[in-house]
Amino acid sequence: MRSLALKLTLAFLAVGLVGALLMALFVGQRTQRAYEQFVAARGRDALVAALARYYATHGSWAGVDVVLQRLAGQPEPQGGAPPPLPFVVIDAANRVVVGNPRYPTGARLAPAARARGVPIEVDDQVVGWVVFSGSLRRPGPDSPEAAFFGRIRQAIIYSAIGATALALLLGIVLARTLTQPLRELTAATQAVARGALGRQVAVRSQDELGMLAASFNQMSADLARASALRRQMTADIAHDLRTPLSVILGYTEALREGKLPPDQEIFETLHGEAQHLQRLVDDLRTLSLADAGELPLMRQPLAPRQMLERAAAAYRAQATARGIDLELQAAPDLPTVQVDPERMAQVLGNLLSNALRYTPPGGRITLAAATQGDRLLLQVQDTGSGIAPEDLPYIFERFYRADPARQQHDGSSGLGLAIARSLVEAHGGTIAVASQPGRGTTFTISLPLTDRPPRVPTSAPADAPVVTP
Fold first, then answer.
1. Over the chain, what is the mean pLDDT?
2. Residues 6+ apart with CB under 8 A from 438
């Protein structure tokens, strides 16, 4: 049995069948018992009333046993002793006047036995009791009671069959409803396995199956996007490698054939292109080590202001040459963090070089640091051109370019932000970006603190951003 729909259908059928059988059993027994109790109670009331009328008419119990067989519904004797009565009648003196094998006529009943009887009253006086020991009438196979119970059982059987058929129908419908999304998911996973990345399935509900379908759609979309990014990254790497290699090969061939003189300018050009190749290879190696979790980190306690001052000193000359104001906002008493100074300098350097690239002359770049709870926040804010909202989710991807037509002729490898994210995450931190086109961009790095500050600097409240755009 390999079909889940068949398993579910049989499960619904089994539940419906068991429920119908239990219902038939309990309802049948309860109905018969309630009917017998009703008939018995009505017969006993009629018997007590008939005995009271007999005593009122005759003034005694003499001869009452002759008529009790008919009142009790017992068959007439056929040449033998009449069957025992399911009750006894006792007089006011507690003596049995009509008995049975358990309580013979003439015997005296114990007060406890008489207490279970029903008193017979005539003119508000108790003249005797009827003590019942069984049912007044046992219905035979041809009696109306037997016919009534037969109709009840027939109705119960028909109801059980109908309930079972309904359970089977509902089981088939529900099984198909439940397994349809699974069949679609199976077909979609097989399509993804064949290479059709990005395959989507319909989300038909908000339950666990709907969540599974939504998760599959997200996974499929992520796989398609990762595949596209991988292809784009491969193409970008090939392009970034081909450009300097083409320059180097062109110059070396011209030098070998004597078409160009070997002067200093050519050697500087070749050296610059080789450096570009070296940077690209180093960046790719850094990313591969970070992805594998094997990036070595030489952690040591470092003051946040010291990190920012080192980064500002490295890029202040470039900022001044471009007419950009480079500011530093960090309190000197901020708590230290356990970081690798060289790796964090690389992160801040990548962010600063990116900010310098897009900030026009007369703009401003701000380096800031402050605490927020048990985290240290470092920010690099610029007043540059900003990033379009549709590009923000992808700027940390490798070789991602908001403008595909823009080529990198400034010596950058296109991996700066991807490396920054990998290095920050290797330190147990996070990096985020906020930007408004035409107003600037803010990168925020959050790192865990190694110790708590004695107080929160008033220049940067713990519950407020370090820098506001």
1. 79
2. 385, 386
